[in-house]
Design brief:
alpha+beta; single chain; 5-stranded mixed barrel; 7 strands; globular; 18% helix
């Protein structure tokens, strides 16, 4: 239910990044470092030194995530066993503020084109807040 609440609230910004929130697999949140990788499976080591088997066969993977050994990632999904998890979304270990806003905030830019600067989308997003 936690992940569903998170996804259903996509028009608002979720709470500030809280690593503890991402150590909550029973609610659909998992954060850890990739220890091993196979085609559709990752072995993730969390901060509490728990190893998780994370299925990624149907996951949406953020373009900046390379799935390299040693990479920190966050996974949204569902716990499927004591130490197994099926990911629906894979993101970088720490959110990037601009990306965070793009994904989770509805942005209303001014209608007057003279107020827009397409070369500075991050600036425009900050001004739209």
């Amino acid at each position: 239910e936690g992940m569903r609440d998170f996804r259903e609230n996509q028009l608002g910004i979720p709470p500030a990044f809280d690593a503890q929130q991402w150590l909550n697999p029973q609610e659909g949140f998992l954060l850890g470092k990739i220890q091993e990788r196979e085609d559709t499976l990752l072995i993730l080591n969390t901060r509490d030194n728990t190893l998780w088997q994370v299925g990624i066969s149907n996951a949406d993977i953020a373009p900046m995530v390379k799935l390299n050994i040693g990479e920190d990632i966050r996974a949204l999904g569902e716990q499927t066993g004591d130490s197994s998890f099926e990911a629906e979304t894979i993101m970088p270990g720490k959110p990037m503020r601009v990306m965070h806003m793009m994904l989770f905030q509805k942005i209303n830019l001014p209608n007057n084109s003279s107020e827009r600067n397409p070369k500075l989308p991050a600036y425009q997003m900050m001004q739209a807040r």
